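User: Some background: our group keeps a shared notebook of sequences we're curious about, and every so often someone picks one and asks for a predicted structure to add to the entry. Today it's my turn. The entry only has the sequence so far, pasted here. Could you supply the structure so I can complete it?
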Amino acid sequence: MTSNAASVPDLDDPATDPLDVARAAADHIAEVSGVEGHDIALVLGSGWGGAAELLGDVVAQIPSHEIPGFAKPSVAGHLGTTRSIRIERADGSTRHVLVLGSRTHLYEGRGVRRVAHGVRTAAATGATTVVLTNGCGGLHISWRPGQVVLLKDHLNLTGASPLEGATFVDLTDLYTPRLRELAHQVDPTLPEGVYAQFRGPQYETPAEVRMAGLAGADLVGMSTTLEAIAARHCGLDVLGMSLVTNLAAGVSPTPLSHAEVLEAGAKAGPVISDLLARVVKLI
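Assistant: Of course. Here's the predicted structure to add to the notebook entry:
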């Protein structure tokens, strides 16, 4: 049995509270999966998809477009399935992880509410932590493709926000220090950096990359920051992990391509998936 779509408010209607749609999505996930609540959510970006198989037992796989407010992914390399995974911990306790494989990017033109819907749904399922991953361009020549970087802060250069009206949220420690410490327990060598999100879908120009670097960015990409803001608004702890898939424009000696991003993600996939799974099991 599936949720009655006719009873779900229209996420694109300005009169609709997007949190109502998130609750409807969470109800659908609970109904289909049989899992009443989830503890942790993962948003898997380019290259990170293999982590789900290493976490634990898959309880349910749900086509994301069947969940209220979600659509099929439009970007190659992104999964279209939302999964509920059960982790049996060493102390005998059980955790449930919600793996969101259908990320909406701002450049798709579906609106900021759609971008934030995944993390809002995660919060509605009961999750208290979200791990946001992405593939991105690096500004440091020493960070070769395949390098994982923990996010310590971000620059939202999209000109957009998932927050509406007089909604004031403190972002001082947006990327939770405690979670970064856990990641360092798994791999003490992981560097930390500042991620800058541009709107896309075009890659950044060399001048834009230099501008971001002067503003303090170490990484550039087209996702994550709006989701992180929405997650903090919902009360979630946030861990951000970036995979450097290429050197950014002006740093790279060759032209950029999405095929390069996919290739780098595929090569790094087994290593970063193992890393992510080990970090999640500590949370």
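Suggested note for the entry: The beta strands are 40-43, 57-63, 81-88, 94-100, 129-138, 148-156, 192-197, 219-221, 237-247. Helices lie at 18-33, 52-55, 112-124, 177-186, 206-214, 225-233, 258-282.
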